[in-house]
Specification:
The complex is a heterotrimer of chains A (426), B (293) and C (463). Chain B is α/β, with parallel strands linked by helices. Chain B has eleven helices and 13 strands. Chain B starts with a helix and ends in a 5-residue tail after the last helix. In chain C, 76% of the residues lie in helices and 0% in strands. Chain C has two domains: 3-158, no CATH class; 226-462, MetI-like fold (Orthogonal Bundle). The radius of gyration of chain C is 31 Å and the shape is flat. The chains are: A mainly alpha (426), B alpha/beta (293), C mainly alpha (463). Chains in contact: A-B, A-C, B-C. At the A-C interface, helix 1, helix 10, helix 11, helix 12 and helix 13 of A face helix 2, helix 6, helix 8, helix 9 and helix 10 of C. Bound molecules: adenosine-5'-diphosphate and magnesium ion (MG). Residues 84-85, 214 of chain B line the site of magnesium ion. Chain A: The chain crosses the membrane at residues 24-45, 211-232, 253-275, 281-303, 399-418.
């Protein structure tokens, strides 16, 4: 046996131990990263799931004319202004009689959401014939009650540490015994805008705001991005100063912090051009500038993967360069370009910071109806709610994140499917 | 016993289109023609029924049997894609590093089965070094390139010993005079021929018993090639060398025996002189007379 | 007419002009004996030519008018307000103009408004509707005139295809140049506002001052009172959080990339890679929420159980979550870089009898080092510019500390805080945000340029 063999053999044990350790570090890194992902997702889902249901209280409301102050033949305007508040109060008083203490009276009223009277208003305005009848109505409970029924208030705690006091618990137990408390799917969350009251807050206006913003982004960044990519990949002269400058700029812009684009939007679009603040139009413009590099880079890669034979074939039968590119190359590159665009749009959908700069951070209750009306977007809504201390808002923030992630996952899935479906080996 | 093995080897029909594509010959490869076996005990390498499969059960080597003698230079020739590299890489288990590659059969180094559980690929590769087609110095200094193996395997007890190994290896590779003043400059800064000699120096620094060379001169100019060929002749004194080459002149110049591979089969293995002057198999003759390949 | 109305009309006009352009070219064509006709180009190109004439000038005027309308109207309005307001300071004038514009956008408040402002607002409204009428007429007139001019160009000899292709080229060049315009826009907007800021606060105070409290510099007599805008604590805070993030992301990202490209089985790779990409696709606001509501309280209570006092908005929490966010970024960049190392290099090392980890540590990583450094710089740039995580999870108070358990604030946090309040645009406070933006832009730009340069050189080396 040669000396080499002996010497090598002597080192082997140590070396294999090192090898094993290194391998373990690698595996552990991946496991740890994915563990973070799992923790993050379970945390969000765990917090957010309860938000998809709301606690309702059944009231028997006497809609009699004297209480409401209107009659069956009132005008819609009169119906709108009628005194539904008292009707709600009366029904609560009948359910839980004998409350005299001022503090308790206030708490009694606070059992149901401020939305209860508007619920009645909607009912009566839909059907004025209800006036004079007594109706059983399920109305939203206050957010504290909701939180209690979701098991997030411990009734064994000392009374002082609870947001729900003993006398309220007595009421709730009574109502529950009468079958007047139920949990239902939270439609409000999907059909309303923002609200100061968590139980009335929804994501519809933010969703629509996101929709308009992305609409602007897509309709600008897609054509511009494709045109720029076509020029750079197919037409641009090589070794030309301007072309090189454009390329350097695109690569750099892809790595510029998003908040800087927000500063640009604020200084140029709002201050200089006087476009309306908080509007999806500006949000879309800023996001366009931000996503353009992504789309251009992806589109160029897609164009580059179309083999030269296709171009040569078309040029060979007498097509002009432009005809070749638009009629033969572009269609083949389209799946790749669309994939890149969808991924760019997914980035835009999740972007928050630059939109804060241009004022899309306002409190928006109404669903925006155009690209110039003040709006917010889903990620900003999440940011705003995350700031609210109420437990019920934390829940809704997580739920809004779940909705956002669902959109992002679907977009990425579409991109993946598109890529798989049209992947071509040349 | 040996003859019996020979008779049992597979009979394969190989269709080969002539260069003009006019006619198709059907050749029969029945075992290996020539002298594939040495006097049993004396073989450095002993290969029986070697089959190699790449992922997807694509077979690249079919039932190869051969012995490789001590301190001999054996050349492997054949048209490209015939499996020369694949076979060469079996001998130090480099095929282990390729995903999905499977080697069967019996390969012994000094009588030890290299696929044995007790065998260690790290040790095996220290004993059976390899030089590649394209010079592949590491992105390190010339010194560190040569010291790489000894350091890994703990072959030098101290710096002085290491310096010694480096100097001797570079000298054996005929490179020391050229680089002794710039041992600390990067190995990638050398010329192609120098880089290849650096890789040879790197390999012999571990004092292996066998050196596998896979077309070591195909990326080099004629002068560098000549230098390397001289070097191989000198190295023969201390090492067993298996060299894959696409140049028949090179095989003729430097080897004692030559193996001709065809589509994964070892068609003929004989004394180099015999192979080039009096080939036994039609396929070998076609190849060396340049009728295809 | 509303913007949408004008655009729709232009689209209808475009369709119409295509139709008649094409038709006219066919009418003018004389059939030739061998089949075909004597038109230079296909009829559709004549159609496109007319469309180009009809739409492009009209669209240009429309865009130009729309962007300039508001600044011009505002300045004209301000020149009409009584003389005593004319010589007020720029700040006050912009305040007045904002108030008037507010009235314009909320006409229901007109009744109760100051008569002076009311008059100005009504004036503005009138001018605005006048401007709108002129704009509509001008754009439509241009479009129609363009159609006629285009039609006169439709002749068999006109090289319609070449002309249309030229127009298409020019449009494409314009689109590609938007990248340059964007950079210029960024540079000028941050530079311009920063200069105004440095007019009020000396640049040295900003760059080297150690006291940051813009809130106290709200009143006019205090504006620029030195010491309030010293950005050093912000820089330190930014570096602290970024350093924590990189300390987590770089080793984890690099090791993950190494494992995935050198060790993992194809199956594991097929699942783990997309899973890591999910981590990269999660919006930063989600990470911010996670950091603020889950990680920060967790760290705090853990610290307290060890008897450490941990701020509720500790740098550690923000940095940790930011690190998680950057892991996939670092790992995918490193993955590219590691895969670019030629297989021959690995073969050389395995052929010498090196183990996998020896090959990785002694050959692959040194070979990939420039690329890894590039990836590190890009990750650092990402960390420094990250906004939402720190806005939600880091503090507002500018503490100068390198203790990760304390709260620090960062450049991006301050930009957001300064610009999301309700203050006037020209105050030193808002301008300070642009000065911070400038420093952020310059630092990330340098990091990006250097990183991209290193990575490109590295790629070329192995191509
Ligand atoms: N890593 C691999 N995976 C799959 N097939 C391979 C691989 N390497 C080589 N082959 C195939 O094995 C056959 C022999 O290849 P090789 O040994 O490289 O031939 P030679 O070196 O004689 O030119 C060829 O058909 C080649 O395509
Ligand atoms: Mg080969």
């Amino acid at each position: 046996m040669s000396t080499t063999t002996e010497k090598v053999k002597a080192t082997l044990g140590k070396r294999y131990a090192k090898e094993k350790r290194f391998r373990f570090y690698g595996l552990a890194s991946i496991a740890l990263s994915l563990l973070f992902l799992v923790i993050l997702l379970t945390d969000i889902v765990g917090k957010g799931l309860p938000a998809f249901s709301s606690t309702y209280i059944k009231l028997d409301v006497q809609l009699d004319a004297p209480t409401l102050g209107v009659s069956t033949d009132a005008t819609p305007e009169q119906l709108r202004m009628a005194n539904y508040n008292t009707a709600v109060l009366n029904s609560l008083n009948t359910l839980l009689p004998g409350v005299t203490d001022r503090k308790e009276k206030k708490a009694l009223k606070g059992l149901v959401s401020g939305d209860a009277q508007y619920e009645l208003q909607r009912m009566v305005m839909d059907d004025p014939q209800l006036i004079g009848t007594t109706q059983s109505v399920w109305v939203l409970a206050d957010d504290d009650i909701d939180v209690y029924y979701k098991g997030n208030i411990d009734r064994t705690l000392p009374e002082g540490d609870r947001r729900i006091k003993d006398f309220q618990l007595v009421w709730l137990d009574k109502l529950e015994a009468e079958g007047r408390i139920d949990s239902k799917f939270n439609t409000t969350f999907f059909t309303r805008g923002d609200s100061r009251e968590p139980e009335e807050a929804g994501i519809l206006s933010a969703l629509v705001g996101s929709f308009y913003t992305l609409l602007v982004t897509l309709s600008l960044s897609f054509p511009i991005g494709v045109a720029a990519a076509l020029y750079l990949e197919e037409f641009a002269p090589k070794n030309n100063f301007w072309v090189d400058l454009i390329e350097v700029n695109i690569n750099n812009l892809a790595a510029v912090p998003s908040i800087v684009f927000g500063l640009l939007g604020l200084a140029v679009f709002i201050q200089l051009f006087g476009l309306p603040r908080s509007a999806p139009l500006i949000g879309g413009l800023v996001l366009t500038l931000m996503t353009l590099p992504t789309i251009i880079i992806a589109s160029r890669a897609a164009l580059r993967s179309v083999p030269p034979s296709i171009r040569e074939g078309a040029l060979g039968i007498g097509a002009s360069k432009t005809q070749t590119v638009f009629q033969n190359v572009l269609p083949l590159a389209m799946p790749g370009i669309l994939t890149g665009t969808i991924i760019g749009m997914a980035h835009a959908l999740g972007e928050t910071a630059p939109l804060l700069m241009i004022g899309m951070i306002a409190f928006i209750m109404d669903v925006p109806d155009s690209v110039t009306s003040p709006s917010t977007v889903l990620p900003v809504q999440i940011y705003l709610w995350a700031d609210s201390p109420e437990r019920a808002f934390t829940e809704r923030t997580s739920a809004a994140i779940m909705v956002l992630l669902t959109f992002l996952v679907s977009m990425n899935l579409i991109a993946v499917i598109l890529r798989k479906r049209f992947e071509r080996r040349w | 016993m040996m003859e019996a093995t020979l008779d049992m080897t597979t009979v394969a029909k190989v269709n080969t289109a002539t260069s003009g594509g006019r006619e198709e010959f059907s050749h029969t490869i029945s075992g290996t023609i020539g002298k594939p076996y040495l006097d049993g005990k004396d073989a450095k390498f002993f290969c029986r029924d070697v089959n190699v499969f790449y992922s997807g059960d694509k077979q690249a080597i079919f039932d190869v049997n051969m012995d490789i003698g001590r301190n001999e230079v054996i050349a492997m020739i054949g048209p490209s894609g015939c499996g020369k590299s694949t076979f060469l890489r079996c001998m130090n288990r480099m095929n282990d590093t390729i995903e999905g590659c499977r080697v069967t059969g019996d390969i012994r180094l000094d009588g030890e089965d290299i696929h044995d559980k007790e065998q260690d690929p790290v040790l095996l590769r220290a004993r059976v070094g390899m030089v590649f087609q394209k010079p592949n110095p590491f992105p390190k200094s010339i010194y560190d390139n040569v010291a790489y193996g000894p350091r890994l395997h703990g072959l030098a007890a101290n710096r002085a010993e290491l310096d010694d190994i480096v100097e001797q290896s570079l000298t054996k590779a005929g490179l020391f005079k050229e680089v002794k003043d710039r041992l600390q400059s990067p190995g990638t800064g050398l010329s192609g021929g120098q880089q290849q000699r650096l890789c040879i120096a790197r390999t012999i620094a571990v004092s292996p018993e066998v050196i596998l060379m896979d077309e070591p001169t195909s990326a080099l100019d004629p002068i560098a090639t000549a230098t390397i060929e001289e070097l191989i002749d000198e190295l023969r004194a201390s090492f067993t060398i298996c060299i894959v080459t696409h140049s028949m002149q090179q095989a003729a110049r430097i080897s004692q025996r030559t193996a001709y591979f065809h589509m994964g089969y070892l068609v003929e293995l004989n004394d180099t002189k015999t192979v080039f002057t009096n080939p036994q198999h039609q396929l070998t003759e076609n190849y060396i007379t340049g009728r295809f390949g | 007419m509303s913007t949408l109305g004008i655009l729709l009309t232009l689209i209808v006009l475009a369709a119409f002009s295509y139709y008649i352009g094409r038709k006219r070219s066919l009418a003018l064509a004389t059939p030739m004996q061998r089949g075909g006709n004597n038109l230079h180009s296909l009829p559709s190109y004549y159609g496109y030519l007319v469309v180009a004439w009809a739409i492009i000038p009209a669209l240009l005027v429309f865009v130009l008018w729309s962007t300039l309308e508001k600044p011009l109207l505002t300045s004209s309005m301000m020149s009409h307000i009584p003389a005593e307001y004319q010589d007020k300071s720029a700040d006050e004038r912009s305040l007045i103009s904002n108030r008037i514009l507010n009235l314009v956008h909320n006409p229901e408040r007109l009744a109760t408004a100051d008569p002076l402002f009311k008059a100005a607002a009504e004036d503005y409204q009138q001018m605005q509707s006048l401007s709108n009428i002129i704009k509509t007429l001008l754009v439509l007139a241009l479009a129609i005139a363009g159609t006629f001019i285009g039609l006169r160009h439709v002749k068999p000899k006109t090289r319609a295809r070449n002309q249309v292709e030229r127009v298409v080229q020019i449009i494409m060049i314009g689109c590609a140049s938007i990248a340059i315009l964007t950079t210029l826009g960024i540079v000028f907007s941050v530079l311009f506002e920063s200069f105004r800021f440095f007019g009020q606060v000396p640049a040295t105070d900003f760059l080297f001052g150690t006291h940051w409290s813009p809130q106290t510099a709200l009143r006019a007599d205090q504006a620029g009172s030195s010491g309030s805008f010293g950005a050093i604590p912000l820089f330190v805070g930014t570096l602290l959080i970024s350093a924590i993030a990189l300390l987590i992301a770089v080793p984890l990202g690099l090791m993950s990339a190494i494992y995935l490209s050198e060790y993992a089985s194809p199956t594991l790779r097929a699942y783990a890679k997309p899973a890591m990409e999910i981590l990269a696709g999660i919006p930063t606001v989600v990470y911010g929420f996670f950091a603020a509501l889950t990680v920060a309280p967790l760290i705090r209570s853990m610290g307290e159980s060890f008897g450490l006092s941990v701020a509720s908005e500790s740098a550690l929490a923000a940095g940790l979550v930011m690190g998680i966010m950057i892991i996939p970024f670092m790992s995918s960049l490193s993955d590219d870089v590691i895969n670019a190392v030629p297989q021959a290099m690995r073969d050389g090392s395995y052929g010498m009898g090196a183990t996998k980890s020896e090959t990785i540590k002694q050959v692959i990583i040194p070979a990939a080092l420039p690329g890894i450094v590039g990836a590190f710089l890009l990750a650092a740039s990402r960390a420094i510019g990250e906004t939402m995580i720190v806005v939600m999870a880091a503090g507002l108070a500018a503490n100068m500390t390198i203790n990760p358990l304390e709260a620090v604030t960062t450049v991006t946090v301050q930009i957001v805080t300064l610009l999301t309040g309700d203050q006037e645009f020209d105050s030193a406070k808002t301008l300070a945000a642009f000065a911070l933006g400038l420093s952020l832009f310059v630092v990330t730009l340098i990091l990006n340029v250097v990183a991209l340069h290193i990575v490109r050189k590295y790629r070329e080396q192995y191509d």
